[in-house]
Description:
The structure is a homodimer. In chain A, 39% of the residues lie in helices and 16% in strands. The first copy, chain A, folds into 2 domains: 1-59 and 323-365, Orthogonal Bundle (Hypothetical Oxidoreductase Yiak, Chain: A, domain 1); 68-180 and 227-322, Ribosomal Protein S8, Chain: A, domain 1, CATH 3.30.1370. The first copy, chain A, is of the alpha+beta class.
Amino acid sequence: MRLIPYDNISLFIENAFLRSGVSGGDARICADILITSDLRGIESHGIGRLKMYIERIQKGLIEPVSKPQIIRESPTTALIDGNHGIGMVIGHQSMNIAIAKAKEFGMGAVAVRNSTHFGIDGYYPLMAVKSGMIGMSFTNARPSVAPTFSTQPVLGTNPIAFGAPSDEEFPFLFDAATSITQRGKIEVLNRKEKPVSEYWVIDNHGNPIQDADKILQSLLEKEAALLPLGGAGEVTGGHKGYGLSVIVEILSSSLQSGAFLSALSGFDEEGNETRFRVGHFFFALNIESFLPLEEFKGNLGTLLRELRSAKKSPGKERIYTAGEKEFLTEMQIKKGGIPVNENLENDLHQVEVFLDMRPFQFGKK
Amino acid sequence: MRLIPYDNISLFIENAFLRSGVSGGDARICADILITSDLRGIESHGIGRLKMYIERIQKGLIEPVSKPQIIRESPTTALIDGNHGIGMVIGHQSMNIAIAKAKEFGMGAVAVRNSTHFGIDGYYPLMAVKSGMIGMSFTNARPSVAPTFSTQPVLGTNPIAFGAPSDEEFPFLFDAATSITQRGKIEVLNRKEKPVSEYWVIDNHGNPIQDADKILQSLLEKEAALLPLGGAGEVTGGHKGYGLSVIVEILSSSLQSGAFLSALSGFDEEGNETRFRVGHFFFALNIESFLPLEEFKGNLGTLLRELRSAKKSPGKERIYTAGEKEFLTEMQIKKGGIPVNENLENDLHQVEVFLDMRPFQFGKK
C-alpha cells in the first residue's frame, strides 16, 4: 500500500474526467466531491469509485456533458431534470440554486429526477454550511434494503445528510444510510476476510448471513437484503429505519414524478443495463432568518460540547458528535496522504491506460 | 375497562381545559390534538395525559392563556417565543403560520422556544397534509436517551414526524422517537407486568435492564437511559439514531437560542420544578410548487402499494407503510370507542372533582 498526497489524487481524478469528455469546470467539481470523500475517510465513495464512473460514461449510461434543466420554479423551489448527466455536477448546481433561494427568501429546496450517482451525500450540506446555512441532502438508490416484515430488497440505502455550522473547527455533519450498513462496508470486510455482523443482512428466508463474499454475491442476485436501521421486525425499531427510508424515497421521487424502488434496479426486463434515473432532494435554510449566525454557531457548539462531556460507557474514552471522526481523519490524510492499495492501484492504472493519460501516475512506469 | 365514544371523551377534555382557564378556541385545539392521539391508538399521548396537563396548569408550570409571540420573521420563516403557554396551542398556531408561508412562497418554517409538551408530534404534519402539503415537525424533550458510548441520559426522545398526502384513504404519516422506544411504552409493559426488551434500556454501567418497574424508577433517578435507534455502540448503527436525535435537538434549540439537553430536566439545582422550555420546529412544503397535487398523490400511492406488495418474511402476512396501522386503529375506535381502564377512570374522576365538572362523566355518579 502506498500513501499518495491528496492533491495528486485530486488532479488525477480531474484529468480522468476531462479525458472522458467532461468539461473543465465539471471535472473539477467531480474531483472535489470524490476527494472530499477520501479526505473524510469514506473510502467507499472516493477515488475507489473513479473507475466505475469512467466505465459508466464510456458505456453511455452517464452523459459526460451534464445539461440539467429547470422544469418548474417558484421563489423557494425548483424541479430539475438531470437528463442523465453526472450526478455530482447536477447535485452541485442544484444545491447552489437552493442556497441562492435561501439567501433571498429564507429557504430553498431543489428536487431532481433522472440523475446518476452523486458521490457522498454529505458533500452538499457542506456547501450550505460554507454559506452560513443549514443544509440537507437526500437521494434514492438501487434497491437493496428490505422493508419491515419483508425479505425482498426493495428500497435503496437512501441516505440522509444534514450539516450545520458551529463555533468549532469543523461543522456538525450527519451523513448516513437509513439502512444499518451499506454494500461498501461489506466490501471492506470482504477484503479483510472478516465476518459480517449477524444484524446487517438477511437471506430470502429472513435468516442472517455473515459470510461477506456470499453476501456480496447474494445482494447482486437479489437473494439477500440489507436491514433498515433498527434491524428486523419492530421490537428494536426496524419500522423506524424503514419509515425514514421511505421518507427519503418520497423526497427523491414523488415530488419529481421520478423513478423509484424497482425502477432503479439498473436493468431492464431483458437484463440489459439501463439509465440510473435516481432522484435527489436538496434543502438550504438561511440561519440569519432566525438569528445572527454567530449566535447560532455558539448555541450549536455549546450543545455539542455538552454531549461530548456526558458520562462515558465503561471502557470508552470519548463521545463523538457527527462529523468529528471524519474531521480528525481529514487532518491525518491531509498530512499523510490517501492510502492506495494494490487493487486500487491496478484499477487506476487501467483507467490511465484506457484514457491514454500521460505521464502515468499509477502502476508500471 | 369501558369503551367510551371518542366524541364524549373529546368534549370531556375540552371542558377540563375550559375550566382550567383556557379559552374556548384553545380548549378545542387541545381536545382535538389529544383525541387524535387516542384515535390513532397512541394511548401514551391522549386522554391518559389529561390529568398531567391540568396539574401542570394548576402548578403554574403551563400558562393557561397562551400568548406566543413572533420574535423575528421573514417571507418563509418565523421565530416564536411560546412564553410557556400550552404547547398544543403554540404548535397549532406555528404550523398554521408555516402553512400560510408555504402557500405564498413554496415553503414555510417556524422555530419555537419556551414552549411546553405539545402532544403527538404527528398531529402537525397532518395539518399540512390537509392543506395539500408535506409537513414535518420536531421537538426536543426531557433528557432520557444516552449518546453513543455514553450511559448518561442527555438527549430527549426527540421525535421526527413527516406527513404527505396520497391517493389512498389515509396519508403517509411517520411519527417516531429517535430512540428505540419511549417511557410510555415501558409504562404499558409495566401495567401488563411484562419484561422489557434487552435492547431498549441500559443502566449506569451500560448493562441492559429489563424489569419495567425498576426501569421507570431508574429513569426518574437518572440511573438508567434509553438507547438511541440502532442500539448501543456503532455496530448496529446506534450512532445514526444518536445523530438523528442531535439533528432534532439542533432544530429545536440552536435556531431559537432556546433551552436544550440538561436545561430541559424540569428541575432546578435545588430540585424545584421549573418551566419546561422545550423547543419545536415546524416545516411545510407546498407540493403544488413542484407538480400538480393529484400527480404527487398518485406517485406516492403507487410507491406505497409497491412496498406493501414486496415478498413477505416467513410467518408475516402483511407489510405496512407508516400511518397505516394507526388509520386501521382509528376506524376501529371511531366505531367501538376509546378503551378507558380503571386507573384512567380514577384519574379522570379526580380531574372532574378537582375542576368541579358537572354532570360527572367518569367515576361514581
